[in-house]
Amino acid sequence: MTLNDDRRDANRDDKRAKPETAQSRFGDLASPLIEEATRHASTLDKHSEPEELHKLRVALRRLRTLFWAYRPLLDEDFDTRQRAVFKYLATSAGSARDWDILLELMKTLDVKGLDEPVKTRRASVLATSIETIANADVKHVLWTGLKEANQQLNTGRKRVPVERFAKKRIDAARGQLKKRIKRALRAKRSDYAAYHEVRKAGKKVRYLLEFFDADIKPKLRSKVKSLKRLQKRFGALNDVVASHELLSQGTLDVGGSETRHALRALDAEQKQRFKAARKAIR
């Protein structure tokens, strides 16, 4: 039995008594994410695997989404600062992983001559990321943010039932996703930004559905699978676009012919992944 199964059973038992509030739920949702993020941050070194960086970035992104959900109940300036911190740390963690993705794409597309330059660049970027995260004192920053958020939530005068709160915020996120899908369908293929916005909005809805799984109707919970499929297609497109941008920066110590060949291969792959992403939202 999962935590959410237990929570659903508890919710049914307690509904006749005192309904749980959004404010009381916040700490239960945030604490595991902070524990996960600090655990991954504390183990980073020059030998860190790509998956370790990815898990740290995902935990920080989920925290950012959680704070977005609670934005109506938090001080706006505080919420803006906290989510900026999460974005900064997630970007730092993701920098080295972007080079890992490029390396994997070069293998998939059978592009030769870039392995060692990419690995060298990745090592340099990883060292910078580790230093940035260490200097940020992730553990202190995240737990301090949670403490202040809880203080604001617990001293607020208005209590909001968690079921009502969850539905309202999920509806808001789904509304954003629908608007961004419409915008992407009207956009040209060269306008990748519109597709990137769909990817981010889809992640937000998925994370919220997972956060409040115990508080929403089964019909809403069933949306998670389709959002995962959407995220997979758009994530695949994002990987190619991001890799193309890395190569275009000219930071690798390789010949021009190797770079041009790699960029042509990425261009061709990007067209295929763009078609797959567009098909997913029609």
From TrEMBL:
Protein name: CHAD domain-containing protein
Organism of provenance: Caballeronia cordobensis
A Pfam short name: CHAD
Region (Disordered): 1-29
Positions of the CHAD domain: 16-282
Ranges of Basic and acidic residues composition bias in the record: 1-19
